[in-house]
Design brief:
Pathway: Cell wall biogenesis; peptidoglycan biosynthesis
Protein name: Mur ligase central domain-containing protein
Pfam families: Mur_ligase_M, MurD-like_N
Distance between the termini: 29 Å
Strand order of the largest sheet: 6-7-5-8-9-10
Radius of gyration: 21 Å
Strand content: 15-25%
CATH architecture of the largest domain: 3-Layer(aba) Sandwich
Helix content: 25-40%
Number of helices: 10
Number of strands: 12
GO biological process, one term: regulation of cell shape
Structural class: alpha/beta
CATH class of the largest domain: Alpha Beta
Largest sheet: 6 strands, parallel
Order of helices and strands: HEHEEHEHEHEEHEHEEHHEEH
Subcellular location: Cytoplasm
Length: about 325
C-alpha cells in the first residue's frame, strides 16, 4: 500500500473485514508519530508490515502489486523501477471499479465544480427513490461502502486527475465540468503528486472517457467541444447553462447544474424530481458559500477557488461591488 491516505486505509480495512489472505506492506514517507491513529488501528494485525520514511521506500520491488494512493506520483522512480521488474501497479479506485457489484457508476471530474456536481447528482438520485452512494475526492473513500452496494444501486464518484491518470475503467456516465490549469506543481509535501505539463493534466482528465463503450454516456461542457476529446466510444452529450431555479450563485453553477441534470436524466430520473431537488439544493461548504450578512454586506467563503480562473468566475458572479480577500499556496 503506497501511501496510507484515506483510500488505501479504507482498502486495507476492507481486506481485513473480508479476511482476504494476503501480506500487506504499508509504505509511506510519514513517520509513525504522524500516522498514530491509523497505526493504532492496524498495529496488532499479523499480516501487516511497515516501511516508513523516505529512505525505506526508495525500492518497491519484491511486491506482487502496488496500490498507489492518488497523492503519490505515478512518475516516482521507485514505481517505474518496480513496474519494470514485473510488479503490477494499481490503485484503490481501479480495484473499486473491478469489484463494484453495480455498473451504474457516474464519474464526475473537472478542475472545478466536480464536488458540487457530484453531490447534486447524488441528491437527485436519492430523491428519485434510488439507492445511491457518493464517494471519491469528495472525502469519502469508496471502499468504505463497497460491501453495502447492491446490483441495482447507483454510485456517484468525484474523480480527481490523480485518480484518473492511471485508470483502467470508465464509468457508465462520465461528466467533465471544465478544465483549467491546475496541479502543475506539488502543493503539499504529504500530497506531492502533480502533472508535469498542461498536456498530461488534460490527458489525465480525459481518461475518464477512455474505456467507455457505445452504450455509455459522456456529458461534457460545450466549451470543451473544440478540444475534440477523442477518448472512448461513449455517446457525447454537451451542456451549456441550466435555466432551472436554484439557490446557487454564479454562472459557473448554472453549468454545474446543467451537467447534473443531464446525468440524472441519463439515469432515468423524471424532470419534476430533478427540478425540485435543484431548487432546494444549498451547495457545499467553501464554494461561494454565504457565511453571514452584516450591516447589509454579504460574506462568502469561496476558498475552494484555488486557480485564477475560478476566482475570476466567482467575482463575476456578483453585480455588486466586491472586496476580495485572497491568499494560499502557489498552485501554478
Amino acid at each position: 500500500m503506497l501511501g496510507l491516505g484515506a483510500e488505501n486505509f479504507a482498502l486495507i480495512k476492507f481486506l481485513l473485514m473480508k479476511r482476504i489472505k494476503c501480506e500487506i506492506t504499508i509504505c509511506d514517507t510519514k513517520s509513525l508519530k504522524e500516522l498514530t491513529a491509523k497505526y493504532k488501528y492496524l498495529a496488532d494485525k499479523k499480516n501487516i508490515s511497515w516501511k516508513l520514511g523516505k529512505d525505506e521506500i526508495k525500492r518497491l520491488d519484491g511486491f506482487d502489486v502496488i496500490y498507489r494512493s492518488p497523492g503519490w506520483p505515478v512518475a516516482d522512480p521507485a514505481i517505474k523501477e518496480a513496474v519494470k521488474l514485473g510488479v503490477k501497479l494499481s490503485s484503490p479506485i481501479n480495484l473499486f471499479f473491478r469489484l463494484c457489484p453495480t455498473k451504474n457508476i457516474i464519474g464526475v471530474t473537472g478542475t472545478k465544480g466536480k464536488g458540487t456536481t457530484s453531490t447534486l447528482i447524488y441528491e437527485i438520485l436519492k430523491a428519485s427513490g434510488r439507492r445511491a452512494w457518493l464517494g471519491g475526492n469528495i472525502g469519502i473513500a469508496p471502499f468504505s461502502f463497497l460491501d453495502k452496494i447492491k446490483k441495482n444501486d447507483w454510485v456517484v464518484l468525484e474523480l480527481s486527475s490523480f485518480h484518473l491518470e492511471d485508470i483502467r475503467f470508465s464509468p457508465y456516465i462520465a461528466v467533465i465540468t471544465n478544465i483549467y490549469h491546475e496541479h502543475l506543481a506539488p502543493a503539499d509535501p504529504h500530497n506531492p503528486n502533480y502533472h508535469k505539463s498542461v498536456k498530461t493534466y488534460w490527458s489525465a482528465k480525459a481518461n475518464i472517457l477512455k474505456f467507455q463503450n457505445s452504450h455509455d454516456r459522456a456529458i461534457i461542457n460545450r466549451k470543451l467541444k473544440k478540444r475534440n476529446l477523442k477518448y472512448g466510444h461513449g455517446k457525447r452529450i454537451f451542456f451549456d447553462k441550466s435555466k432551472l431555479v436554484s439557490k446557487l450563485a454564479g454562472e459557473h453553477n448554472k453549468e454545474n447544474i446543467a451537467a447534473a441534470v443531464l446525468a440524472a436524466k441519463s439515469a432515468g430520473v423524471a424532470n419534476r424530481i430533478i427540478e425540485k431537488v435543484v431548487a432546494s439544493f444549498n451547495g457545499l461548504e467553501h464554494r461561494l458559500e454565504l457565511v453571514k450578512t452584516v450591516n447589509g454586506s454579504k460574506y462568502y467563503n469561496d476558498s475552494f477557488a484555488t486557480t485564477p480562473e475560478s476566482t475570476i468566475i466567482a467575482i463575476n458572479s456578483f453585480k455588486e461591488p466586491v472586496i476580495l480577500i485572497a491568499g494560499g499556496a502557489e498552485k501554478n
